[in-house]
Amino acid sequence: MFKEKQNAPLSQTMTIAIIPAAGSGVRMGGDRPKQFLALDGKPILAITLMPFELCYEVDAIIVVTQKSDIEYCQKEIINRYKLTKVIKVVAGGDRRQDSVRFGLDASEGKYENIVIHDGVRPVISQMDIKEIINAGKTHRAVITGLPAKETVKEIDNDYNVIRTHDRRRLWLVQTPQIFRYNDLMEAHKKAIAEGWQEATDDSQLVERLGIPVKVIKGSEKNIKVTTPDDLELAEFLLKHIQD
């Protein structure tokens, strides 16, 4: 799946990838956080990071993990797999929203474009990364996603249907996502000031600033590994599907 690193163009806007990987993996049921579980003989996080390492449009990477896992991540992921673009491994927070903010702080405002990608979405190609970065050249905020295939119903606390939504207007959101540094930092500061802690992805925060968020179609392969079944599917995809 991995390809050789490509030569960088002579000039480009500086782009950093922030990879939140601070989850505990409760639904996976293992004794290690899911981002460190083996997939096709390598840790999930290492597989996720490699396309970013090889993609010339990405200048640097920051990994956000649990404080207790920083040393392990540095030694067994970054050093072992020679991920030279990873400039920092920093501690995350209680929520994904906090972890991304800590990663953003660690970038020190040195990169204009911020790409966010879940550490447990390992079936991602360099082309997926290039597409989101290219879209970010003309749009301030871009996310990837897939149109909903199933009928979507909203329910109440007693599991009674409230309404059925028009699936033609509904998309299932993925990562990677790309934002301008100043926009994303302002969005996180606004969330803190207003005590808003419910964001499940960064585009929710940016939307609250009134910034239009563009959606581009993602990949069916780009699954998030959350359960043992996801792990089996990711194993199959890595073995049988080429970039």
Automatic annotation (TrEMBL):
PROSITE patterns: ISPD. The keyword Nucleotidyltransferase applies. This is 2-C-methyl-D-erythritol 4-phosphate cytidylyltransferase. Its EC number is 2.7.7.60. It comes from uncultured Desulfobacterium sp. The record marks 27, 34 as: Transition state stabilizer. GO terms for biological process: isopentenyl diphosphate biosynthetic process, methylerythritol 4-phosphate pathway. The record marks 167, 224 as: Positions MEP for the nucleophilic attack. It catalyses: 2-C-methyl-D-erythritol 4-phosphate + CTP + H(+) = 4-CDP-2-C-methyl-D-erythritol + diphosphate. Belongs to the IspD/TarI cytidylyltransferase family. IspD subfamily. The gene is ispD. Keywords: Isoprene biosynthesis, Nucleotidyltransferase, Transferase.
